[in-house]
Each structure stands twice: as C-alpha cells, then as structure tokens.
Amino acid sequence: MPTKLKNKFFVKIRFSTPYDIPQIRHIMSVVFGDTSLYLDLLFNLKYDNNVVVCEIDGEVVASAFLLSTHIGEQPCTYVYGCATLPPFRGKGIMKMILEYADKHICNLRQRGLFLVPATEDLSHYYKSLGYDHFFYHSEYHFELFDFKVCLEKRYSIEIIDHLEYYEFRPHFISDQHAIMWEPAHYELVIKEYARTKGGFFKILEGVTVVGIGFYYIMNYKTWIPEFLGNIYPAQVANLFFNKIETNYINIITPGKGSSFGMVKWNTEIDQPLQGSGYFAFALD
Known about the structure:
- 28% of the residues lie in helices and 36% in strands.
- The protein is of the alpha+beta class.
- It has two domains: 3-135 and 261-265, Gcn5-related N-acetyltransferase (GNAT) (Aminopeptidase); 136-254, 3-Layer(aba) Sandwich (Aminopeptidase), CATH 3.40.630.30.
- Strands 1, 2, 3, 4, 5, 6, 7, 10 and 16 form a nine-stranded mixed β-sheet that branches. Strands 9-11-12-13-14-8-15 form a seven-stranded mixed β-sheet, with helices on both faces.
- The two termini are 34 Å apart.
C-alpha cells in the first residue's frame, strides 16, 4: 500500500524491476557522480532486482542496493548506495527504505543489515535507526621522504586475478566475524580500478605465500585498501617502495584502529554478535 507523507506525496516502497534501472542509474549519477562505466559494471555484476526504491507518482526518487553476503558463515545484507534525489530529501524516505530492507532480511532470517556511513552526521542518523558500530580496521601511512627504504631480498610480489584472491582470502582471515564476498564482488573491484595501475597481489617468501592484498596507484600515491598476512605493514611498504614509483603508501588491515561500518542486528533470531568484525571492499 502506498504511504502518504505529511507533504501530501503518496509514496510506494518496493523492490526494483529491470524497468527501473535507468532511473536508479540516474539517481546514483546525480548523488554520487558515478560514471556510466562503473554503473555498467555494477548492474552487470551485482544487480538482481535487489534494489529497494521509493516511487512517487511513477518516478523513482530514492534507492538502495541490498547486496547479500555472509558475516563468517551467517547470511547478512550490505546496504549500498543509499541515495535520494535532492528535491525529495528531508522527508523520511530513506528511513522508510531502510525499514523495508530490515523487514525483508528478518523474513529471510538473516543475521542483520550493515552499511558504511559517509559522514559523522550520517553515523549519528543511522545510530538513531538502530545501527551500531561493529566493523573496525587499522590504517597505516608511509611517506617516502621519512621512510628508510631497504633493499628487499626476502619478499617478492606477484599479481593474481580475483578468483585466486577469493581462494586465498579465507586462509588469511582470522576474524570469525569478517564479511566474506563472492567472486563477482572482487571482479567488480578490479574492474572499477581498471583505469589505474594496480590489482590483487600476493607476497611470497621464497615459494610460500605470506600475504595477499589489493592495491591501486593515483598521482604517485599507493592505496592498499586490504592487506592480509603474516608480515608487518612497514615491510609491505618497504616492498612497494622498492618495486614501484610512489611517494606515499596507505595500508589498511584488520584491527581495532577505527570504525568502518555499522550493523542493525536481527534480534528476532538471536542476540547481537559480541565483540567486533572486519569488513573491506565497500565499493567506494
């Protein structure tokens, strides 16, 4: 049933159909500046009528992707790309979309919904809707001008494809509450950064794989949004300073350094998970 807002709009919250795709793409382009290339990849690899939309007078004015995944071995859903066209903001539309998504995952008996607030203000807003900080990571910064680069003989780097990364990753994840993605998610990640130098990699000590990660380079700065392994971030930075032309390296690993993601638990099936979790590849 359509809902009537206080401004006399009649709105309908529902799942999308293929006919809605042009309007959803328009919303994401307006709100996030997403390119046609990225949206082609996103819809080809991740779309399965899995976008909750708000329709007003036949026009889709807000949307949010629901991407199914797992936290450890338990099913859950990532809410991605929450977006409302500017003229329709401040009317409670996104709250209705998130409530609809919450009912959906409860019906599926999933563990919960999670998302990444883009700002501190949004973090407070999601907190008011029942979301709590749960995912954390640690971040390391290395500047070439104050880093003592040593000749690297112990470790080597090899580029791997997204399927090999998918196979390696569970062996390097120790956090039982880590988000685990399907191969198509990593395919989207690598294709999203196809215009920059980078890719999935493994680090070897002799013939033994001691770490894996993903990197990309922009303006002589290197970003490693995930590194998993048995060597220190400074050793990873030294290896990259030896191998590529870069003056700055940012490395993110599992850890308790800063919050990266909030969860709304489905308390109808169980109590909230205790402790914290780990989450990477949010599709920036």
